[in-house]
## 1
Amino acid sequence: HTHPVFSYQIFPTVYGEFDQKENGPLVNKRNEVIGNHFLWAVKDVPSFTEEPFATCKEDYIQKVEIYAHRGRFTPNWAMLAQLALYDEHLKKWLKADLKDEFGWIGTAKTLTTDEQKIAFIFDKVKTTMKWNGVNWVGPGEADLADIWEKKIGNSAAVNLVLYNYLRAAGVKCSLIYASTRDHGKVKDELPTLENFNTMVLQT
């Protein structure tokens, strides 16, 4: 039986000097190397205090984070972008067949500039579709048309509906993964969708 191989990244977040820091082989009783041994130690760490206008507490608490990746490689941002491009759910969401029950697309096409089309469709989606209070990087259901039928969805669903209407009206736009203030800062050194918790639209 072959066990899956994992690689991993370790991110210690410490504001100050380590009291102890070790990195070496981990051996068993037969003196065989069976892994890696890490030790980080700090002392006299002050307690965390909430501050006004700060982002989420995870950005400031001192900690060690370990992220495992299946296989003998460490992902990068280019690889993550390629995986997103081949995601079948995302492809479907970006080309959703939404019912234009209010005739917005026809009206938008009569407007002269992209700015006018964007303002018109943005206002219609904003007043017609309700945000359910949830931020996420996907709409939560496989079929965006079903979400549109209910007129309620998470942040990604609302922006995907807006995206599809704008594209249908001839406006070039793109979707961007983003992290809200209460989700925390994006870790540039960690290419993973866990960095993000919503989608936003760029025109």
Note: The mean pLDDT is 89.
## 2
Amino acid sequence: RRRRPPSGLPPVESDVYLPGVNSTPTPASASTRSSPLEAVARLRGLVVLVAAAAFVRLHDLSDWWLNPDEGIYYSILTRADFAGFWQEVTANAHPPVFYLLLRGLGYLTWDFVLLRWAPVLFGVAAIWAFWLAGRELGGPGVRGVVAGVLAATWLALSPDAVALSQVLRPYSLVVLLLAGSLVALLRYRSRPERRTLVAYTGL
């Protein structure tokens, strides 16, 4: 900005506030700072898509009894003592993470319908991860947005993804972890940072 001091000196260009020379200063970050609500507003389409996906996955969640595979999980989870539970888990072919998560929820409830909420939440979170992966693959600008929307919409509306999110099995958790690791790998490829590499390794 070109300001003319009251002393009649030649105008100078300055962004520094000088009493009597510049106008009242405005914080540099004021125009760029955004609230969480503004961030949500910019992503309102994605938020609506995630909400719709959650509704579809929660619909009729209690309309059927445990299937045989769910019954195996449920019988292991409901073992009275932790030692017996852990012995069953280590003898099972599947990794223990899902078992441990549900065992933790078991301290709140053993209602299998409520326990099914965990796979639902994993499936919904995977939609967000697909959005991020699409953005990374598509690149900056409109291409990245379109790629992210297409990826998220595909997972949100996929009948198979919906079905896998409604059963007491670790499938939706696996999808979430794979999508998250893909996001971390793509970000590390474009912006190598130690924390991104740690996230990828952990996932």
Note: The two ends are 49 Å apart (CA to CA).
## 3
Amino acid sequence: AAAVVVAAAGCTTIGTHHAAKPTTTTTTISSYPIDPSLFEPGSCESFRPTAGDRHTTVFLDAGHGGLDPGAVGQTESGQTIYEADEALQVELDTMALLRANGFDVVVSRTEASTVARPQPGDVSGGLFTVQGDHRDVTARDVCANMARADILIGIYFNAAAAQLNSGCLTGYDAVRPFAAENLRLATLVQTDVLAAMNAQGWA
């Protein structure tokens, strides 16, 4: 998109990075696929507002997915959790909130799947090759551009081996012509995420 505002929000949990493919319950939501020939079923889908219409499109990217589980961690009760699963739930919940406030929303995926349709050489031994990983990541940008999104937000949950490295951060592109708008959005996202977590006692 010509003037997309970009921010990437992520929270760090304690755990190890990358493990076996996750198992999740598929979420099925009726929507409008941007281009079924380029993206996996359930990926790169567009949703209209459920109330009002701000004539603004937000692209939400649930990081990883499908062959790529992302970071792996454990809850306090010892349950193994996968970044791809957690990011997807946040994406879907955020989509519902945005649609109810008049935004068109395009999401990178609606279920535990990759975004791009794998091509020859993209997968080896049930995992992405470097080529496949690159294709799946760039497919998210392609989707956002095809949807002519005004705002792009990526959702991630990182992993770290030490408690000191835990916390939340929001990154943004500071070298684009609309860097000031990026910073404003990133600041709003970071402030709201921290406020919500603090309200739950997760500071």
Note: The radius of gyration is 17 Å.
